[in-house]
Amino acid sequence: MGGMIPVYIAIGIGVVLALWVIAAYNGLVGLRNQVQNAWSQIDVQLKRRYDLIPNLVNTAKGYLKHEQTVLENVTKARSACMNTQGVAKQAEAENFLTQSLKSLFAVVESYPDLKANQNMLALQEELTATENKISFARQFYNDVVMRFNNKTQMFPSNIIAGMFGFKQAEFFATESAEEKKAPKVEF
Question: What is the pTM of this model?
């Protein structure tokens, strides 16, 4: 009878350990799936953005005959974004597209007729709403990536992550070091 207690303890420890491994693994799978879902939400909003851009360019084309370079840059940036794979490369391409769109809107400001055009106003409003949705989706994605990466790095779940090949996810950082600098204002 005295030899039975250690066997029960050993079985109990084994069961607890097995349950912990299962829970840790399932938690990592759940977080990995949340990362993939969050990326899909960004992707949906980016596609919406890409769909708006040709209409924006076509609306501006008639007014901006002398500004073809700006329109070409927006079109090239859109194309680059649509053909990019991977989080880091996508973020880089999105930065270029954002800068191109800012240039376009700066040019639009100097054309009063275009600035007042109802189609242009509607497209700008739609694009602004889409940019906000992208921003929220990106924030949610980065939050989920942080939770997932924490789980893959922190003890003891990092042991399970290593055993089952869970790799850290990339953050979707849209600003370059240059863009993060405060603008210099001189009078």
Answer: 0.79
Q: Which helix (H) or strand (E) holds 29?
A: helix 4-61
Of 21, 33, 37, 35, whose CA–CA distance to 146 is shortest? 35
pLDDT, tens digit, 9 for 90 and up, residues 45-86? 999 999 999 988 888 887 887 788 888 999 999 999 999 999
Q: Where are the domains of the chain?
A: 4-166
Peptide bond before residue 112 is cis, with ω within 30 degrees of 0: no
Eight-state DSSP code of residue 154? S
How far, in Å, CA of 29 to CA of 26, rounded? 5
State the architecture of 4-166 in CATH terms.
Up-down Bundle (1.20)
* CA dist 8 → 16, 20, 59, 99, 159 (Å): 12, 18, 77, 66, 26
Question: What tokens were used for 54?
Answer: 């040709």
Sequence letter at residue 157: S
Quick check: 56 and 123 in contact, CB under 8 A? yes
CB atoms within 10 A of CB 100: 22
Write out the H or E segment, with its range, that includes residue 43.
helix 4-61
Cβ within 8 Å of residue 39, ≥6 positions away:
87, 141, 172
101, 102, 141 from 98: Cα distances, Å = 5, 6, 19
